[in-house]
Design a protein that fits this description.
The structure holds two protein chains of two kinds.
Chain A (H helix, E strand, L loop, with lengths): L1 H18 L1 H10 L10 H30 L6 H4 L13 H25 L3 H32 L9 E3 L4 E3 L12 E2 L4 E3 L1 E3 L2 E3 L2 E4 L8 E3 L5 H33 L2 H5 L4 H26 L1
Antiparallel strand pairs in A: 1-4, 2-3, 2-7, 5-6, 7-8
Helix pairs in contact in A: 1-2, 3-7, 3-9, 5-6, 5-9, 6-7, 7-9
Chain B lengths: L5 H29 L11 H23 L7 H8 L4 H28 L14 H10 L1
Chain lengths: 295, 140
Amino acid sequence: MADTAIHHDVDHHDDHHMDHHDDHSMEAKWDGGEPPWKASYGKLMMWYFLVSDAFTFAGFLIAYGTLRVSMNTWPVPDFVFQSLPGDIHHKPLYFVTFMTFVLLFSSFTMVRAVQEGQKENNKGVVFWMILTIFGGIAFLACQAWEWTTLISKEHMTIHENPFSAHTESGVYLEGDGHDIKEGDVFEAGAPYLIHKHGGEWHNLKYKVTEGPDAGMIKEQSLGPKAFGALFFFITGFHGFHVLSGVVFLIIICVNSATGLYMERKNGHEMVEKIGLYWHFVDLVWVFVFLVFYLI
Amino acid sequence: MSHLSYEESKSRALKIILVLAAMTLLEVVFALMAKGYIIEGFHLSPILVGAVMIIMSLVKAYLIVYEFMHMKYEVPGLVKSVLLPMFLLVWAVIAFFSEGNYWKNNRQGIEDKDAIEVDTKKIIPSGYLEDTHTELIDRM
């Protein structure tokens, strides 16, 4: 008796469903069973984690922009980032462009790993994931070199920044033994780096040649300290994402090698999820690159 | 999920990565050209260059999210729930940058005031009672 009633109900529902397909198909999906957005819980939550992370990074980058427009002088990126390993200088943005390519390459190998996963090709997944891991490690190594140069050679810290740019034209009254010689003429906007000798900043004296202060003798001043703090916090936060990404990639690569994801028969969804995270790290770098190095 | 065959998606991924790499290279060349590094004495307006590079970065972001992260193949509900909140950032950028600009003007105002030379002996503090007032001036 009860059985027939249920059957009747189901039949009725089906008829109804067919008559008004568009009105009810969406609601029916929310009743349970199949995921309404055709994405599993884990994948959906990865997306929302990335949304929240995007806001964190956006907060950092907007803070950088706000502080930058609030100052009348700011370090010039193609002057700050101009060194290459092997004591090579005056190669603006070369190194960071290389770093960007490394990360882009690792994004591509990640795409390939996900594609092999969907094909349930375990060996392919492991191969491409190992390449991705190497890409991540290479990027971190580059960043370590960049930080080392800034900290130990150029003495930039989170509260002291020797990079700045002149706000008026002038002529140097002394040289620094590096790029600046006595009598060198510069214009407003010219970048400079103050060197440290024996633990003391060696601020060069110069004579102003134009503007209301023309004729006055001044000394180079340290750049906005916010620059150092922002640089180390933002690239550090991004580097931390790369580092945790590498750790997760290794775990998932090992799991994949053991055949764990083959047993799940869901197209290596775990690889797809870490792929989303990894591409996001690349996406953030696009904006870090834009804000810190290009503009 | 993806509507492309394995071979098609493979060649598509290669194509996208090449486009991304080319755009990155173009951005760097553009940034250096604007500052006169590539052609001696040739400069471009920083606002123009900035705008072009922001647009190029947004295109790169689109390619990464839609192609690499497969946003293209997700259902509209998911896409909207992820992308619509991002538009809040448009206001954040406008609000914070105008705030930054305000700080700049404020700092300049303070510097301008600092630069005014005044004879401190002639300043009479306001708001004091008459006798304190004279006392102060005497002390000066």
